[in-house]
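Appendix B. One record, verbatim.
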Amino acid sequence: MTGEPQLHGYRAAMPPLRFNMAAYCIGRAAAAFPEKPALVVISDPLQPPAEIWTFAQLEDAVLRVAAALRAEGLEPGARLMIRLENTSTYALLFFGAIAAGCVPLPASSQLTGREAAFLLEDSGAAAVALSDGLAPPGIPAGVRVLESARVRAMTAHPVRTPYAATACGDPAYLIYTSGTTSRPKGVLHAQRAAWGRRPMYRDWYGIGPTDRVLHAGAFNWTYTLGTGLTDPWANAATAVVYTGRKDPAVWPRLITAAEATIFAAVPSLYRQILQYAKVDRAALGRLRHGLIAGETPPPGLFEEWTGRTGLELYEALGMSELSTYVSSSPSVLRKPGAVGKPQAGRSVAILPVESGSEPLPADEEGLLAVHRSDPGLMLGYWQRPAEEAEVMRGDWFIGGDLARIDEDGYVIHCGRADDIMKALGYRVAPQEVEATLAEHPAVAEVACAEVRVRADVSVIGAFIVVKEGAPRDAEAVKRFAAERLAAYKCPREIVFLDALPRTANGKLRRGDLKAWRPA
């Protein structure tokens, strides 16, 4: 970044040509540490763990699930949508599908029927695993339905199959995220995605085989699948899953009961813990440090957490298409105002906003870009060539983040070039929420934006112009949204306007909406 010629491209070891993500994460640890706890499931921090799986037991169950899926008729490459509760069964099915060479599609049990139907149709899934109580209306003809009990029985399938002999570039899993239109888009990751996470081990986690990692999120989120399962197992560490009620006050007790050494969550959860739980160094047991990602940390979070606990928080910046690639860590000290540094081996640059693929010099703001040779980068967007073309510029992938890199190599995040909203750590496209609210009979026009309701709290806001004679009923709009959108996508603030702010050319001034504050 000094103006001298730069050599660009991924600079760490590349994955072997034959590579299976499940074998990499589970098979190696099962061979080296068969009796070591791999997965601990806790439902009540005051009670003993509900489940403890050794690496040998984990591998056995995963390979039996793989065999059962093949017996169900799922061929390599077939998509399998998962809509299960956040239990060990979800994890076993996800990795069992990858072990079989199938392509799991982790989804939320909170999705409405309409949202789930879109994912099923768009992905062309051959099967869907459903939680108890989830009705399966609208399942396309030919799509196999796997009930929870049936999936649980797969872990005891009479035979087990070897890991599929996949190539490192073969599809491994498909995750849907908000797109630039009203339709979510599928991000297709390769088997090599797990290998592509290796730079995080030192430059974010500081992880080793003696660690016990507790993640606060759900498995339908790539943050949880990666940080909560993939990375601990790839390092022969123990993953801890909590299935009980998640009020803020439970986490210190749970961290202590689980003997967690690393805790991962979105920044807003750490803020809630500080507000509603007794937190000091003694209350956190063996915890070494915390990890945060998924949203911008609220002001003062680092200082308050460290001041009360004596422990550090390490931040990472990432995206569904790559996972984290910029971070602080025990080896990369945090610099106020910066996220951290590009992880070792990754090629990261700042490109001009409008066009061009020549990196900008230090301290110039532009689009944060990652070299396309990075093994953690997605294979592409599922059946969205136009959107895929928008994020590739020469040899670089641009995810829409504005940033600059200072003379010390630290990345300062400057916001989003697009208007994607963050809600509870999830990326939500305003167009998706707008398309749903526009169907309300009283709505004439609607626009959505992330708005700040307090100094440290941002929510999704919906700005609505009602039809002539229609009532301005905010609660009715919220009920309408709740019936059609997952809870995290629903607007928390409803603002009625006489007209939406627009430019002289009629373009929506979304920035005006983001600047809105409650009276």
